[in-house]
Amino acid sequence: MMDGPSSIGDILSTLDDLADDHDRVSLGDVLEAFGNRSFGPFLLLPALIDISPVGSIPGLPSLLAVVIILVAVQLAFGRRHLWLPEFLKRRSVASDKVRKAVKKAHKPAAWADRWFHGRLPALTHGPFPRIAAVACIILALTVPPLELLPLATTAPMAAIATFGLALMVRDGLVMIVALALAVGAVAVGIGLAVSKL
Q1: pLDDT in tens, the chain (197 residues)
Q2: Where would a tag sit more exposed on the chain, N or C end, judged by fewer CB atoms within 10 A?
Q3: Which DSSP letter does residue 93 get?
Q4: How far apart are CA 148 and CA 44, in angstroms?
């Protein structure tokens, strides 16, 4: 179920190639390049976009949350192929922005790829991808209300990104970290909500 890029470096190389071949890089281009069984990258990428400075654009975190929910629901129901509606596939970013983002991400990606791969792989198979998917849905549902607070969406999106990474590199230890981050993110979200009442 998890065919496609097997490292963050693979994702960056693919995005770089797409930017070289197109004036704008669309979500449909990325889906075609990664393969329609690439659930991990499509959980990881939207979450990373939200955490980046681009994520401060009003309304963008909620849109990214919708993409994550759409992907996670399909993973939770055991679909073997990822489907995205045409209006999302047509969403695009200028190639020069993609190149800049890829360039900035190279060093942290190389560090991550050295450390995250293949530990406790049993925790990334069987029921665990579906558990991760349900957790991502719950986390993504917290994003729209949290978007009203500065940087508040970072916690759930960081947890979602970690789930995506765990599934992509088949690393069970990262899956454990993702679950811990998810619990922490929900606790932070509840705390923020209560403090604003």
Answers
A1: 445 666 778 888 888 899 888 899 888 888 888 876 678 888 988 888 888 776 677 888 888 999 999 999 999 998 888 888 898 888 888 888 888 878 877 787 787 777 777 788 778 888 999 999 999 999 999 888 888 777 778 889 999 999 998 988 888 989 999 999 999 888 877 776 667 65
A2: C
A3: E
A4: 23
